[in-house]
Write a structure and sequence with these properties.
By secondary structure, the chain is α+β, with helices and mostly antiparallel strands. It is built from 8 helices and 17 strands.
Length: 306
C-alpha cells in the first residue's frame, strides 16, 4: 500500500482534465451504492527504454464486460479506451505507473435502482511501487485465512470487477493487518480456497502448479491467466482444482498474482511456514518480469508500447 502521488492529468469522459479538477458530487450514485466497475493495470519501462502497458486490450475488454454485467452502458470502445490510456501516460510523462480505469453511476438520481443515473468514465495513472511492500517480491509475505467468506457467485458476480464487492475484501484485509499479517485469503461459502483480498492464488506441490477454478467464485484475473500460459510454455504442469486451507499449509510453494501484487510469494499461511520463494515461483516470477520488461519477443503481443 502507498499514498497516491498526484500527477498532472486524469482522463474523464473523453478529455484530459487537471488532476485537482477530477471531482464529483457527494451524492454520486456509486459513492452511496458501490455502482462502479474498474480495472487495475500496470505500465512498465522496458529494456529498450520505451514504456509498455501489460495486456491493455484484455483489461479494457474485461472493463466493458464488467459494465455489461452491471447493466452499465460504457460509451467507449476497447480501442478508444486503450488510446486514451496511452495518451494519458504520455501527458503525465510517466515511464512506469499503475493505471485505474473506472466507470461509475454519476450524480442526479438517488435510490438503489441506478438505471437513470448518468455513467461517467475516467482513467487515472500514478506511480505505485510494490503493492504488498518493498520486500514482498523477494522474500514473500505472511497471510492468514480470513474469518470473512468471499461473496457468493449468486450474490455478486465474480466475473465483474465491481466496486461494491470490494467492501468484503477491505474487511478481510483490515482483519489480517490487525492480526499481524500482510494479506488475507478468503474461502468461499463452501469452504474452498477462493482468492486474496485483491489477488488470485496458486500453490505448487510435487512440481505441479494448481489454482482454484473460476467456478469456485474468483475473479478471472489477467495476471492469473498470464501465469498459467507462461507455465505451459515453460513445461510446468498446471491445473485448475478446488483447494482447501490445508492444501495451502502443505504446499511446497504458494504465491499470489494480480496487477497490483504482480507475482508475490507467500512465506507462511496461518503461521505455518511455507518458506522462501521456491524454484517454480522464482522461475515464473523471473519470466513474468522479463516479459513485462520487453525481453521476451514471443510475448510482444501482450505489450502496448507508448
Amino acid at each position: 500500500m502507498a499514498a497516491v502521488t498526484p500527477v498532472k492529468f486524469i482522463w474523464k469522459n473523453g478529455e484530459l482534465i487537471e488532476w485537482e479538477k477530477a471531482t464529483t458530487h457527494v451524492l454520486t450514485h456509486s459513492l452511496h451504492y458501490g455502482s462502479a466497475v474498474f480495472e487495475g493495470i500496470r505500465c512498465y519501462e522496458t529494456e529498450g527504454g520505451k514504456s509498455a502497458v501489460f495486456r491493455l486490450e484484455d483489461h479494457m475488454a474485461r472493463f466493458l464486460e464488467s459494465g455489461k454485467i452491471l447493466m452499465m452502458d460504457i460509451p467507449f470502445t476497447v480501442e478508444e479506451l486503450c488510446e486514451a490510456t496511452l495518451g494519458l501516460i504520455r501527458a503525465n510523462e510517466l515511464s512506469s505507473c499503475y493505471i485505474r480505469p473506472i466507470a461509475y453511476r454519476g450524480y442526479g438520481f438517488m435510490g438503489v435502482d441506478p438505471t437513470d443515473a448518468p455513467v461517467d468514465v475516467a482513467i487515472a495513472c500514478w506511480y505505485w511501487p510494490a503493492y504488498l511492500g518493498p520486500d514482498a517480491l523477494a522474500n514473500g509475505v505472511d497471510v492468514c485465512i480470513s474469518s470473512w467468506r468471499q461473496r457468493s457467485a449468486n450474490a455478486l458476480p465474480p466475473a465483474a470487477k465491481v466496486a461494491g464487492s470490494y467492501v468484503n475484501s477491505a474487511l478481510a484485509h483490515m482483519e489480517a493487518k490487525q492480526n499481524g499479517f500482510t494479506e488475507a485469503i478468503l474461502l468461499n461459502e463452501d469452504g474452498k480456497v477462493c482468492e486474496g483480498s485483491g489477488e488470485n492464488i496458486f500453490i505448487v506441490r510435487d512440481g505441479i502448479l494448481s489454482t482454484p477454478p473460476l467456478s469456485d467464485g474468483l475473479l478471472e484475473g489477467i495476471t492469473r491467466d498470464s501465469v498459467m500460459q507462461i507455465a505451459v510454455d515453460l513445461d510446468i504442469p498446471v491445473i485448475e482444482e478446488s483447494l482447501v486451507r490445508t492444501d495451502l499449509y502443505l504446499a511446497d510453494e504458494v504465491f499470489m498474482t494480480g496487477s497490483a501484487a504482480e507475482l508475490t510469494p507467500i512465506g507462511s499461511v496461518d503461521r505455518r511456514v511455507v518458506g522462501k520463494p521456491g524454484g517454480i515461483t522464482k522461475e515464473l516470477q523471473e519470466r513474468f518480469f522479463a516479459i513485462v520488461g520487453g525481453k521476451v519477443p514471443e510475448y510482444e503481443d501482450w505489450l502496448s508500447y507508448l
